[in-house]
Amino acid sequence: MPAPDPAEFRAAMAQIPSGVTVVSALTSEGPAGATASAVASLSLDPMLMLACLDRGSRTLLAVQAANRFGINVLESGQEAIARRFSTKAAPADKWDGIAWRDAHDVPAIDGALVFVCCELHDVIAGGDHVIVTGSVEGLTVGEGQPLLYHRGEYGTVGDGSRRSLG
Fold first, then answer.
1. Where do the domains of the chain lie, and which CATH numbers do they carry?
2. pLDDT tens digits, residue range 22-65?
3. Torsion region of 118: left, alpha or beta (phi above 0 gives left; psi -120 to 50 gives alpha)
4. Within 13 A of 138's CA, how many CA atoms are on the CB side?
5. What is the pLDDT of residues 121-163, one digit of tens each?
6. What are phi and psi of 21, to 5 degrees?
């Protein structure tokens, strides 16, 4: 079997629906954050989470500097937040007008379906991304449906709709 090219691999992986999150950290310069879909629970005992961030991400630097991070699982109505945090805009521009609270020195986005506060546990190289793992220190769960990403479009569970990134 021939090895796939990167575009073919990306298209194949787009078949896997994923939840949409914003990984956040707080530094002396203010909050930082980036949209991430490669996020998962890693372990129940001890409770650990993982998130994959681009190797060149300013949010990765903020996570490492703060030694802690948050995972904000976005609710179906927060597509605009997902789009904003997926850009390379300056951190101050990303957070402008976004309601958030300080939760154990980590930015928690108001209205997020789930917020998980983590202490940085490990940083692992993974190609063009870095895997950060964190020990879970706090958790809040809200009401609603998660925002999903599938085949390059946003949608929600069971509504049968997807919206183009267009």
1. 17-157 (2.30.110.10)
2. 999 999 999 999 999 899 999 999 999 999 999 999 999 999 99
3. beta
4. 14
5. 999 999 999 999 999 999 999 999 999 998 888 988 765 555 5
6. -130, 165
**CA-CA distance, 51 to 28, in Å (whole number)?**
22
Bridge partner residues of 70 (DSSP): 24, 117
Separation CA 29–CA 92 (nearest Å): 9
Contact criterion met (CB below 8 Å) for 72 and 108: yes
- Residue 3, both tokens: 């090895």
Q: Which token pair is 162? A: 């997807």
Of the candidates 52, 12, 19, 22, the one whose C-alpha atom is nearest the C-alpha of residue 134 is: 52
Beta strand spans in the chain (E): 18-19, 21-27, 30-36, 39-44, 47-54, 68-73, 100-102, 107-109, 114-126, 129-141, 147-150, 153-156, 162-164
- The Cα–Cα gap between 162 and 146 comes to 13
Q: How far is 128 from 109, CA to CA, in rounded Å?
A: 27
